[in-house]
Amino acid sequence: MVDKVSKGHRLVMENREQIALTGVKKVQSFDPKEIVLETELGILSIKGEQLGIKLLNLEEGKIDLQGHVGALIYQRNTNGGSRQGLMNRIFR
User: May I ask which residue range the UniProt record assigns to the signal sequence (predicted)?
Assistant: First the structure.
């Protein structure tokens, strides 16, 4: 079995109609108005109209999307919850 090697996260958008992403771990949800992805840098919500997936290769962490993009939103990393935040504040 070959281990996955993290290659980072990259997002390239052309004319707010095509997006090529790397560093994608999982598609959490998908519909024509919103696509939610788990990436190397956290959860990414892509909102718009007539959104569709042109290419999906989770082994390589790649996805290509098309549609009319209205917003790209990265959610705060909530791994560890508030406890992790507290520990980070104490040991700064």
Answer: none
